[in-house]
Design a protein that fits this description.
The chain is an alpha+beta fold. The protein has 9 helices and 18 strands.
Length: 386
C-alpha cells in the first residue's frame, strides 16, 4: 500500500514538473494573418497565414519610409532638402479622397524631414507621393526602388505598385515580409525608427495623432505603423521591448481599430510572458584555442563569426549546456572562417542550436622543416592514439 502511494506521488510530481515545463499554445487571434517574432534571433513564436499575400493598406508606408531612410543614409538626400509639391501629390488629388493626408499643396515646398513625419505619424498619402517624386522622379520608378529594397531584404512574397498602399490588385505583401521590414527599420535606421513612437505631428496648423494607440497605453511599445482600407481590414505592425527582449508583431485583416490593438497586445504579452532572448556568445568570441599543426603559430582561436542569440522558454537558459567538438589534428594553412568543428547548445536531451566553429585568425603554413617535424610528431601521436 505504501509502495503504491509512493509510486503515485512520484508520477504526480513528474506530471507537475512536466506541466511547468510546457509552454501554452499562442492566443487565438481574430485576423486574416499574423506573426510574432523575436527581433534578435528571428525565432517565430506564433503565426497564422504568415506567407499569404494580402493588401497592406498604409503598412506600405513602412517601405516608403525605409527607402527614404536609405537614400538619406547614403547622402543622396538631406533632411532639410525642400521638396516641390506637384499636382499629383496635392492633398486634393481625387485618388486621395477619404484617405489619410498630411495636407500639403502645390506652391508650398516642404522639408524632407516634415514629409517623413507626415508619412510615419500622419500616414499622409499625399506625403508619400511627394517623397516618391522627389526621390525617384515618379511614383512608378519609386515603386521599382521599393521592390529592389524588398528583394535585398529577402521579402520574397511581396510586391509594391505604389508608395501609399491605396488598393491595387497587384499590390500585396505578407505578414512575414512585413516583420522582416520592421526589423530592418529598427536595426538599420534607429534614428529614423525613433520617429515611429512620436505621439503627434502638426503641419499647416493641423495637429494629427499617431494612429498606433498602443503607444499611449503600453510604455514598452515604440512603433511601428497602422493601416486600413476596406480591402485590407484593420492592420498593425508593432514592436515592443521589455527586459532586454524585443518582439515584432504583424496583425492583418482585423475588424476594427480596437481589435487590431487588442490582438497585438495579446501576442506581445504571450511572447514576453513565456520566452526570453538569451545572448549566448558575442560575435568573434573565442571559444577555445586548439593546437594547429604545420603552421607559423601553434595555437589558433576558434569560435563563431556572428553573435549567437537564442529564444528560449523563460527561465530555461540556466540549463543550457555548451559542447564544442573540434576536428582532430588541425593543419595549416587556415583562413579566417574556415570550419574547424561544431558547436552544440542543448537543454536536456534536446539540441536547441548547432553551428560550425570556425577559425577566428588566419594561420599561414610553416616552412618545410617545421612541417616535416610536425608530420613526424603527428604520426607518433597517432600511433599512441590507436
Amino acid at each position: 500500500m505504501m509502495k503504491q502511494l509512493f509510486i503515485s506521488l512520484l508520477v504526480a510530481f513528474a506530471m507537475v514538473s512536466h506541466a511547468e515545463d510546457m509552454i501554452p499554445s499562442p492566443p487565438q487571434i481574430e485576423a486574416s494573418a499574423y506573426i510574432l517574432v523575436d527581433a534578435a534571433s528571428g525565432a517565430v513564436l506564433a503565426e497564422h497565414n504568415a506567407d499569404v499575400q494580402l493588401p497592406p493598406a498604409s503598412l506600405t508606408k513602412m517601405m516608403t519610409a525605409y527607402v527614404l531612410a536609405a537614400e538619406m543614409s547614403a547622402g543622396r538626400i538631406g533632411k532639410d532638402d525642400m521638396v516641390v509639391v506637384s499636382e499629383n501629390a496635392w492633398s486634393q488629388n481625387p485618388i486621395f479622397a477619404g484617405s489619410s493626408l498630411m495636407w500639403i499643396e502645390p506652391g508650398k515646398d516642404v522639408r524632407v524631414e516634415d514629409l517623413e513625419r507626415g508619412i510615419v505619424i500622419s500616414s499622409g498619402n499625399d506625403a508619400t507621393v511627394a517623397i516618391a517624386e522627389h526621390v525617384a522622379g515618379s511614383e512608378e520608378v519609386f515603386a521599382e526602388m521599393m521592390n529592389t529594397q524588398a528583394a535585398a531584404l529577402g521579402m520574397k512574397d511581396s510586391w509594391f505598385v505604389n508608395s501609399h498602399g491605396l488598393p491595387d490588385p497587384n499590390h500585396l505583401v505578407t505578414a512575414r515580409d512585413l516583420a522582416t521590414l520592421a526589423k530592418a527599420i529598427i536595426t538599420r535606421f534607429p534614428e529614423h525608427y525613433a520617429m515611429y513612437k512620436e505621439p503627434e505631428f502638426t503641419y499647416n496648423n493641423i495637429k494629427q495623432y499617431n494612429r498606433n494607440s498602443l503607444l499611449g497605453e503600453d510604455s514598452s511599445v515604440d512603433g511601428l505603423k497602422t493601416g486600413h482600407t476596406a480591402e485590407a481590414g484593420y492592420c498593425l505592425v508593432a514592436s515592443a521591448e521589455r527586459r532586454g527582449m524585443r518582439l515584432i508583431t504583424v496583425v492583418m485583416g482585423t475588424k476594427s481599430t480596437k481589435a487590431r490593438k487588442n490582438e497585438t497586445r495579446s501576442l506581445l504579452n504571450y511572447g514576453f510572458r513565456f520566452y526570453e532572448s538569451v545572448k549566448v556568445f558575442a560575435a568573434n568570441q573565442e571559444l577555445e584555442k586548439p593546437r594547429v599543426w604545420k603552421g607559423q603559430q601553434d595555437l589558433v582561436p576558434v569560435g563563431l563569426i556572428d553573435a549567437t542569440v537564442l529564444t528560449l522558454p523563460r527561465g530555461k537558459s540556466k540549463n543550457l549546456v555548451t559542447t564544442v567538438e573540434l576536428t582532430p589534428q588541425l593543419e595549416a594553412p587556415l583562413a579566417v572562417g574556415d570550419p574547424v568543428g561544431t558547436l552544440k547548445l542543448s537543454i536536456g536531451d534536446e539540441i536547441v542550436f548547432e553551428s560550425p566553429v570556425v577559425a577566428l585568425e588566419a594561420v599561414e603554413e610553416a616552412g618545410f622543416f617545421a612541417r616535416l617535424w610536425d608530420s613526424i610528431v603527428m604520426w607518433i601521436t597517432g600511433l599512441f592514439a590507436t
